[in-house]
Amino acid sequence: EMMNKFKVIMILMVLNIITGCSETSGLFGDPGEENDPFASISQSSLDYFSSNVGDTTLFKVNQSVIEPEYRTLLDAQAKWIKENSISSVTIEGHADEQGTREYNLALGARRATAVRNYLVSKGISESILSVVTYGKERPLRICSEETCWSKNRRAITVLKGLSS
């Protein structure tokens, strides 16, 4: 009974994410870009965004709420995306290794969607944002302790292209 309710809730959440996204290709894996997605962005710009602006939002256990300390980071991301005429952004959702694969895929999707919605609230066009979830499939660190798990509970903002 409880497991069936859980499955129904999970299916509804995934459907909500899929139907709520302006672009759903690649929701559960590799976006499958045939062309070089970074052809129009210099590596120095990508490095600057990653190291100076910051591309990673961390989350608490089983949470997809953006904590106050990450709002400043996301404000800076939104500003940088606007100033640099970025035309395509993918937000990757990740989870730690605890829990089932299905649960973590849904949690990663909720985290990526939370970041996407925050960026939209800061004036970034929904049409340039897409989300993908990797759940626990792409850990940053592999271990069985909180110091590693906390690094894996994240959403990564990945720049894909510049407007011409």
Brief digest:
Helices cover 46% and strands 17% of the residues. By secondary structure, it is an alpha+beta fold.
* Secondary-structure element order, N to C: HHEHEHEHE
How much helix, percentage-wise, in residues?
40-55%
Global mean pLDDT: 78
Number of strands: 4
Low-confidence stretches: 18-40
**Structural class by secondary-structure content:** alpha+beta
Q: What gap, in angstroms, lies between the N and C termini?
A: 54 Å
How would the global form be characterised? globular
Number of discrete helical segments: 5
| Main sheet strand line-up | 1-4-2-3
Strand content: 15-25%
* Biggest β-sheet strands, sense, barrel: 4 strands, mixed
Radius of gyration (CA) equals 16 Å
Would you write up a description of this structure?
This protein is α+β, with helices and mostly antiparallel strands. It contains five helices and four strands. It has helices at 2-20, 43-54, 68-83, 101-121, 146-152, and strands at 56-58, 86-94, 129-135, 154-162. The radius of gyration is 16 Å and the shape is globular. The N and C termini lie far apart (54 Å). Residues 18-40 have low confidence and may be disordered.
Map the helices and strands.
Blueprint: H1 2-20, H2 43-54, E1 56-58, H3 68-83, E2 86-94, H4 101-121, E3 129-135, H5 146-152, E4 154-162
Helix pairs in contact: 1-4
